[in-house]
Amino acid sequence: MSRLSSLDDLRALIADLPKGDNAASAAIDKKQFRLTKPQGSLGRLEGLVAWLGRWQGSAEPKLDRVDVVVFAGNHGIVAQDVSAYPATVTAQMVANFERGGAAINQLCKASGARLKVLALKLDQPTTDFTVDPAMSEREFVETVSLGFAALPQEADLVCLGEMGIGNTTVASALAAALFGGDGARWAGRGTGVDDAGLMRKSAAILKLSA
After folding, report:
1. DSSP symbol at 3
2. CA distance 132 to 208
3. What is the rounded radius of gyration, in angstroms, for the C-alpha atoms of the chain?
4. What's the pLDDT score for residue 4?
């Protein structure tokens, strides 16, 4: 993929996403009925196999190479005291990933998945969105481009994750802006904030969604 230069480039890319191979998933569903087992006895696993085959374009999907990519960034909204931890913990967690001491490291080890951690300008947090837009259009497009470039093209499956103190406030604010509802509906305790912290978090979300 060539580097994105504008939101129009991103919109064009999103409008031209692959559709998936319905014939492959149908073949997998058909095979499920021929197996010597009660129908549906494997639960969601059966649907997941069909989903994987649809996107791999194969009636015999594989997981020979699985990659996990974790993106880390710092959020300016932390200035509103919406987290139980300071923004410096983001870098500490990234270091823990790199040392192999986090839960995701153990999951990757157990499943044979490859882990890649991409720290995005931890010393340059986004703007506090209660004051100004968190990112300019240029900053946003550049960050999305970095994300695209980080994805391994040869993987059978890519699992995406993120890390960043203040992330649940940002995610909740985006959900509220997109789907409606006030801050109290979307705010959770995240890192374990007390009642006062939860109120601050709700207020911050309300400012973006209003």
Report:
1. P
2. 10
3. 20
4. 86
Could you tell me which residues are beta bridge partners of residue 66?
157
pLDDT digits (tens, 9 = 90+) for 96-129: 999 999 999 999 999 999 999 999 999 999 999 9
User: Do 118 and 144 meet the contact criterion of CB atoms below 8 Å apart?
Assistant: no
Q: What letters, b where the CB count within 10 A reaches 16 and e where it falls short, cover 72-111? A: bbbbbbbebebbebebebbbebbebbeeeebebbeebeee
Handedness of CA 143, 8, 3, 175 (dihedral sign): positive
Amino acid at 4: L
> 71 vs 3, 31, 115, 142, CA distance in Å?
18, 37, 11, 14
How long is the chain? 210
Domains of the chain in sequence order: 19-62 (no CATH), 69-209 (3.40.50.10210)
Q: Dump the DSSP string for 112-179.
A: T-EEEEEE--TTSPPP-TTTS-SS-HHHHHHHHHHHHHHS-TT-SEEEEEEE-TTHHHHHHHHHHHHH
CB 183 within 8 A of CB 205: yes
Q: How many CB atoms lie within 10 A of CB 176?
A: 22
Q: Is 60 exposed, middle or buried (0-12, 13-18, 19+ CB in 10 A)?
A: exposed
* Ranges of the chain with pLDDT below 50: none
Q: Compute the distance between CA of residue 90 and CA of residue 97 in angstroms, rounded to an integer.
A: 11
Considering all CA atoms of the chain, what is the largest pairwise distance in Å, rounded to the nearest integer? Answer: 61
